[in-house]
Amino acid sequence: MTNDTSKSNVKSGKNNKLDKSRSKEVKNRLNDEASNELRPLAIGTIAMMGSALANQAMPKLLGKLLDEKSCAAEQTCSASNSFGASKALLVVVIGGGCASYLRTTLLNRAQGNIAQRLRAKLFSAILSDRDMEWFISGGKGNGSNTPGKGDDSKDDDVKEMPNSPSSSPGAIGAILTEDVNKASESITTTFANLLRSCSSCTFATYHMLSINPTLFGLSVSVVPVVGAAAVLLNKFVKKALARQRECAEEAAAFAEERITNIEAVKLSNREKDEVEKYVKMQDECVRLGRKVASARGTFMGFMFASAGGALYAVFNAGGKAVADGRMTSGQLTSFATYSFLLGLGTSGVFKALGESTEGLVCGDRIYKLMDGPVSKDASENSNDQPKSVDASTVDSISLKDVSFAYKSSPKKTVLKNISLNLERGQVICLVGKNGSGKSCLASIIAGLLTPQDGSITVQPCGTDFSHLDRKSQTSLVQVVPQQPAFFDTTIKDNVAYSNPNASASDIANALNAANCTDFISKQEEGINYRVGRNGMKLSGGQRQRLALSRALLSNPCVMILDEPASALDREGEVALSDAVDACRNGDEGHRRSLLLITHRASSLEIADLIVVLKDGKIIENGTYADLTSDRDSALCELMPDLF
Q: How far, rounded to the nearest angstrom, does the alpha carbon of residue 354 sit from its chain's CA centroid?
């Protein structure tokens, strides 16, 4: 039992050490961001100190003014002397106002610049540095065995990175807004407020000691008790804030996912259920928030009572000192004001420390999301300069003995020893049951996933596809998925997304090749018609045809259509036939290989080659005539409606 306890303590000590190390790392990285705003921060901090000095000068000047007025009223001094404190007070008020203006303007400007840079870096890291496995896995670990489109089975043995932020758009959005704001505020405004509060405590202490050391002892008698309470509060609040931020992230991710899939929610009549779940999440966030608020409220109430008691003792003892002639009424007023400023400064210190703690928690979440998991392949090739290739010079893309498994489940191989040659002008149909690995293979060919074994080469140059830069990869391969993505902008912008430098005639030709011109002509805005969020204003067939035109516009060497006929209407099926004809019979520069992933038997007759995939392996391939002539073939077993 003793040994277990000892081991537990050692482990706890290591975790605490790691936490301190992580906090130091986050602080250093945030300080690096602040160093880029050194000039506005320096000037703003100097202005803040000027404002603090003005605040500290006012009680003494007010006390002096009170004594001068009393002296003049009793005619014990000349009337001209009573204007000295008034003039000094006027200078302090004007100077303090100017300093406050500079402080607020420059510190807020620095905060905005830091937040802008953090958002840009974070957004760039998410879009550019994270691979598809990270998004598939929800940001938990380096990958997951849970692909999209139901192409592979789910895996319960998913490795997760502890405390890793989710890759859900809702969660990412919360970090990009709230966490970035808190983190940038903690190294600008919060830090300046901490300095101001510390200077307020220092100056107030000096003036109180110079006025009456005995009263000062009474005034600060509560500081040790308040300090101990603040330390305990900070530890509790740090843990509660971290959990509150995680809870808010989960709620944001939940809401974003349900709103995105609102059609499925309504079709399943689950509106009330989802509202109840979301309300429970919000209740948990509120509960955690109440814990933090209650702790802070208890502390502030305790601090107010302590300060009030100390102030009562000061006035009680100070009143006797004034009556005995050891202090003037102006000095007592100044001392009491400095006591208030000392209490205010102490409260400001603890408040700034709490906000700084919250900023560190948010900064930790930002950098965890920004850094993310680094794939082994990326680290191995980090020193290799990506190559480029002219797509028009490529004749084919060849796969040889390609095998793939998600990093989180390396023992579960999704694809096994796949060999396939995709030549310009050739139409290949890829068939297989759900979970056989079809969509996974499409993602590998497109460079979205990296195989563990085997090679993908570009012919005739023989360059490894994984060594090409992303611009070359996307110019070689384009994928039209089952559910193509659209942005809430115009038809023109959505189609030109794959090739933003395309001319108007190129866009028109791509739209015409995909049979989009008819339904576009019926819209009043024509090609400038806004398609709505994810193309909600369009039918399934129209979305599929626009996605087809977007792929055609980049003129790839290989085009992959994943279940293209599933959302196409009669006119769309004609567009598919036209696309097949364009791929097979275009001129030398525009012919391309076409890989059709399909479950429809009617689509097979157009293929030059049919490949049957089962459990991640190619078990059969051949022409339509050859495979359908044998009723015992895997194709006929898979598609009995061929007969």
A: 23
User: Residue 320 sits in which domain range?
Assistant: 18-130+167-371
pTM value is: 0.73
The answer to whether the bond into 460 is cis (omega within 30° of 0) is yes
**Six token digits for residue 116:** 């802008």
Q: Are residues 94 and 176 in the same domain?
A: yes
Tell me, yes or no, whether 340 and 403 share the same domain: no
Percent of the chain with pLDDT over 90: 19
577-612 tens-digit pLDDT: 766 777 877 655 568 899 999 888 878 888 899 999
β-strand partners of 32 = none
Whether residue 359 sits in one domain with residue 231: yes
Asked if 181 contacts 119 with a C-beta cutoff of 8 angstroms, the reply is no
CA–CA dist 454, 401 (Å, integer): 5
What residues pair up with 12 in beta bridges, in sequence order?
none
Task: Name the residue with tokens 């510390």.
Answer: 198
Tokens at 268, concatenated: 């399943």
Measured distance CA(45)–CA(29) in Å, rounded: 20
Burial of 610 (0-12, 13-18, 19+ CB in 10 A): buried
Same domain, 323 and 433: no
Looking at the structure, tell me whether residues 455 and 334 fall in a common domain: no
Please measure the distance between the N-terminal and C-terminal CA atoms of the chain and give it in whole angstroms. Answer: 73
| Cβ neighbours for 524, distance < 8 A, ≥ 6 positions apart | none
Q: Considering the domain boundaries, does residue 364 fall inside one?
A: yes
| Cα–Cα separations (whole angstroms), residue 249 to 172, 245, 282, 611 | 8, 6, 11, 44
- What is the bridge-based pairing of β-strands 427-431 and 593-597? parallel
Can you tell me which residue has the tokens 């305990």?
232
Neighbours of 89 (CB within 10 A): 17
Token duo for residue 409? 């489940």
Express each pLDDT in 48-103 by its tens digit.
Answer: 888 878 877 777 777 777 666 666 555 555 555 555 667 777 787 888 888 888 88
In terms of domains, do 350 and 320 share one? yes
Give strand ranges (E) for 386-499: 396-404, 415-423, 427-431, 453-459, 463-464, 477-480
Q: Is 540 inside any structural domain?
A: no
Q: What are phi and psi of 597, to 5 degrees?
A: -95, 115
Same domain assignment for residues 192 and 252: yes
Domain count along the chain: 2
Give the Cα separation of 606 and 241 in Å (integer). 60
Tell me the C-alpha distance between 167 and 370, whole Å: 11
Strand partners, 610: 429, 622
211 and 77 both lie in a single domain: yes
Inside any domain, residue 152: no
Residues 1, 15: Cα–Cα separation, whole Å: 21
What's the CA gap between 516 and 520, in Å, rounded? 6
In a domain, 325, yes or no: yes
